[in-house]
Amino acid sequence: MKSRFRSTILFGIVLVAAPTFAQSSAAITPAPYQVAWQDLEFGVILHFSTNTFLNREWGDGTASPAVFNPTQFDPDQWMQVIRASGARYVVLVAKHHDGFCLWPTRQTDYSVRSSPWRNGKGDVVGDVARAARKYGLRFGIYLSPWDRHEPKYKDSVAYDAYYNAELEELASSYGDLVEFWLDGAGSEGHVYNFPKIIETLRTYQPNTVVFADTGLFEYGDVRWVGNEAGAVNYENWNVIDRHGYLRWRPVEADTPLRRLHWFWHPDDEASVKSVDELLATYDATVGRGAQLMLGVAPDNRGLIPDSDVKRLAEFGAALHRREADNLALHHRPVSPEVAAALDGDPDTFWSAPAGSHHAEIEVDFEKPVTFDHTLTMEWLNDGQRVEKYAIEIWDGKSGQWVRVAEAQAIGHKKIDAFARVTTDRVRLKILSSTAEAHIREFQIYHWGAPHTEKSAEK
Fold this sequence. Notes:
Layout: H1 32-40, E1 42-46, H2 50-54, H3 75-85, E2 89-95, H4 124-134, E3 138-143, H5 156-173, E4 179-181, H6 194-204, E5 209-212, E6 222-224, E7 239-242, E8 245-248, E9 251-256, H7 275-285, E10 291-296, H8 306-323, H9 336-339, E11 350-351, E12 359-378, E13 386-395, E14 400-407, E15 414-433, E16 438-445
Parallel strand pairs: 1-2, 1-10, 2-3, 3-4, 4-5, 5-6, 6-9, 9-10
Antiparallel strand pairs: 7-8, 11-16, 12-15, 12-16, 13-14, 13-15
């Protein structure tokens, strides 16, 4: 279980006055590395440490390094399982709140160097990083600021030096990092020198996305969704306002594969979420323009448990099946510009007429199609522009367009579900945009959602 930085944290930074020039949300654009990160969409965070061997979620820093001794440690197995789930990146918890380090750090003896595993010569971080890249997954690091073992933690200045030395080791020794997590559990009232932390990271990793709560607004690249249920419960805008500043801060929504458990526990099979639960989570995160971060926990053998292997494979297969038949690919001929939004290729996009604030994409079929979901993506390099949109179908009986879905933000990706319909004409209608809309994809699916059927006959 993890918690986040709260408003009571005392940050070691000085907030400058709000800028004197006006900022517009529509004018805020992402950095290239933020765009690349958002395209990853689905990642896994790995919890594996002394807690794994002690049936704990929260360690207090007193566990002996001797308890850490996996007998079948196999990060290749981890990555095969994770890749089968459809995830594209992994973040390893290199140090949790108990302070035990999964790499042979030079800063403390409280690490794998003092464990019996591989006679103290092992390096979990290095092995996991190599395995991730071997299987085509991006790799990132979680390094807990809170440390319940290290005596220096009582002295903010001394601990800052200690933490930054650990961070320098990780940032300089394990290749490119796709994401760096700052999780502030237990840190209320403690002063951290965040400018120095980010300076250290950026020295070695200029393109790493920094995850943090909005309390670390000035230095984060990604914000926490506000819950651990894996759900975006609101219209999702990438630009947020804090301290009078506007910044591009997309959402990452984290939730564990096993209900309420981030670390592995024995006799815990009933907590594994069902495929339907995972699909609902995906639609409430990726389907609302956010990133899904799913918690996966290897067991005390050093393997992902069989039940988790099975469920993750089932989840990945279900996602693949859903994406297999995009009805929009079978449209009647359209202009090359419109075709760029219907080709199944997110690297191409359609642009509405220059300067427009309303526009539409119509998809016509040779014969009626039945569907219950649409998937829409904005091209965000120039900012998030769509403020309101609708999905409409042509009703041949009434000779009118019928609205089946309507919402505000599209953002990186938006999945809309509605009662099953049948028609030969569908359109995405941009009702309001700050400038001409850019649409990477408009896709149409029949996923068999349990909705009442509605027909729009010719």
